[in-house]
Amino acid sequence: MTFNKKPMRLFGASGIAIGVVGLAIHLGLTILFLANGAQIRPLFWFALALELIAIQTLFIGFLAELIERNTQVLEDIRHEQGSEKRRWIEIKPD
Questions:
Q1: Would the N or C end of the chain have less CB density within 10 A of its end CB?
Q2: Exposed (0-12), middle (13-18) or buried (19+): which is 18, by Cβ within 10 Å?
Q3: Going by C-beta distance under 8 Å and a sequence separation of 6 or more, which residues neighbour residue 58?
């Protein structure tokens, strides 16, 4: 199986990995804030950016999956129409 047939596996896995990193950073920042009131704002924005990138990556994977399935349906229809045309040509009286 290749990723051009199942793009959600590639984009989903990378999106989830990026999202987990972002959530782990947020969790660490929350623990630091609750423990001693430390606020590390650049790291907060970096984690937020990672989470947004993860959401966009998952969305791109979903759209790619929809496009791939639509392409597969169109190929099936073309294949069926092609076999019907060949059948009609063979039956066609002279």
A1: C
A2: buried
A3: 11, 12, 15, 16, 19
The predicted model scores a pTM of: 0.74
Joined tokens for residue 3: 């990723």
Residue type at position 15: G
Tokens of 87: 């059948």
How many angstroms separate the CA atoms of 14 and 45, rounded? 20
Task: Tell me the per-residue pLDDT of 34-73, one tens digit each, with 9 for 90 and over.
Answer: 999 888 889 999 999 999 999 999 999 999 998 888 888 8
Structure tokens at 13: 């896995």
Query: Please, are residues 26 and 47 in contact by the beta-carbon 8 Å criterion?
Result: yes
